[in-house]
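Q: Structure tokens for this one, please.
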Amino acid sequence: MEQSIQRRGMKQPDEINIESPAMCRRARNVALLSAVVLAVCIAPVMAQELAGRDLRVFYQQNCLRCHGPDGSAVSAEGKKLRGQDFTDPDWQRDTRDDEMVRTILKGKFFGLAMPRFKGTLTGDEAQRMVAEIIRKSKKGKVIAPEGEKPYGK
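A: Here is the predicted structure, written as tokens:
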């Protein structure tokens, strides 16, 4: 004998709606898949944009006043503002990259001695600034953007 089970008070769905658990899972999976595809597509573009940013332009706009066109801070304003001489071999030897990155991002003396650039530069860009500009600074060699001839040279 077969008895039918009656489900009293439970409404059987006539059609699938967004409130069903299966449909919610599908919608969540589609949203997750879309986010992953978007991230995979955007990541190379963002990395290329960061890698392509010429930090020498940033240096000229934000650092030149205190550190000078070549990083030596020998100008009258550089001396007055006590800009660090990046070309000093003793300073280069005694200062670690992570210290320089931290100073670039956090500034000095609450931003009064040197402004913070945390909102302007990423950690990777600050690291590139140290490796590609500060560490390669030479007295008399102007830090100029790619393709631009340094003035006076």
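A few notes: Helices lie at 21-52, 55-62, 64-67, 76-80, 89-94, 97-106, 123-134. Residues 8 and 92 are 81 Å apart (CA to CA).
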